[in-house]
Specification:
The protein has 231 residues and is an alpha/beta fold. It has 2 domains: 120 residues, 3-Layer(aba) Sandwich (Rossmann fold); 96 residues, Arc Repressor Mutant, subunit A. Helices cover 41% and strands 22% of the residues. It contains 8 helices and 12 strands. The strands form 3 sheets. A 5-stranded parallel β-sheet has the order 2-1-3-4-5, sandwiched between helices. The chain has a 4-stranded antiparallel β-sheet with strand order 6-7-8-9, covered by helices on one side. A 3-stranded antiparallel β-sheet has the order 10-12-11. The radius of gyration is 19 Å and the shape is elongated.
């Protein structure tokens, strides 16, 4: 089947099992898909592997302070983050927002307010994102439905293939470095694993290019990265 994720996926990073359970029940009742992580390290791994649409982050994690998680995350991901915390001081809120949080909610919280804030951070991402449909030559990328078509026919992409294509679409006409792509798609520990990238680019060209060995759109910039050419 083609890669599509009409239902937003949210990652909850919180070491309190009862809070994670409450968030899962509240969010799934509104048809969100929920992923859980009980430590900062597991959370960062899930962000890299799952590419969630939004993140709910507790600041008081056992292995790494939430502010440090935010700072690391913002080096390679633009996913919206809602902070949940018992820290209610103004300085704490300012520090979280300055570190890259999109919103801040103090524990305890009401379910309706939580859902409203989740909708708000996801809506801001939608408003500032690329146009819903990008057209490049004979390709059509429907970014709302996460569906790709070539000459009108749907092309079946894996999640990582789609993520790679979308990143190039966002920066079309510009060179995106190997390091930047690896950080965005696989996380900050994968910067040297260029073989991951070569394999996925090969598959993407086979699916999207009329002549994969002499690509028209998915160009290689030798020793630097890749560039999406529109004409």
């Amino acid at each position: 089947m083609s890669f599509a994720r009409a239902t937003p996926t949210l990652l909850v990073i919180d070491d309190e099992k009862s809070i994670r359970r409450l968030l899962r029940v509240t969010l799934e009742a509104e048809h969100y898909k929920v992923i859980e992580a009980e430590t900062a390290q597991l959370g960062l791994q899930e962000i890299a592997h799952q590419a969630p649409d939004g993140i709910i982050l507790d600041l008081g994690l056992p292995d790494l302070d939430g502010l440090d998680v935010l700072k690391r995350l913002r080096e390679w991901s633009k996913a919206p983050v809602l902070v949940l915390s018992v820290r209610e001081g103004e300085d704490d809120k300012i520090a979280a927002l300055d570190a890259g949080a999109d919103d801040y909610l103090t524990k305890p919280f009401g379910g309706r307010e939580l859902l409203a804030r989740v909708r708000a951070i996801l809506r801001r991402v939608t408003i500032t994102s690329e146009p819903a449909i990008a057209r490049i030559g004979d390709l059509e990328i429907d970014q709302a439905a996460r569906v790709v078509r070539r000459n009108g026919g749907e092309v079946h992409l894996t999640g990582k293939e789609y993520a790679l294509l979308q990143l190039l679409v966002q920066h079309r006409g510009k060179v995106v470095t190997h390091r930047q792509i690896l950080r965005e798609l696989w996380g900050p520990t994968a910067e040297e694993n260029t073989h991951y990238l070569r394999v996925h680019m090969t598959h993407l060209r086979q699916k999207l290019e009329a002549e994969p060995h002499t690509p028209r759109h998915l160009r290689t910039e030798a020793g630097i990265g890749y560039r999406l050419v529109e004409n």
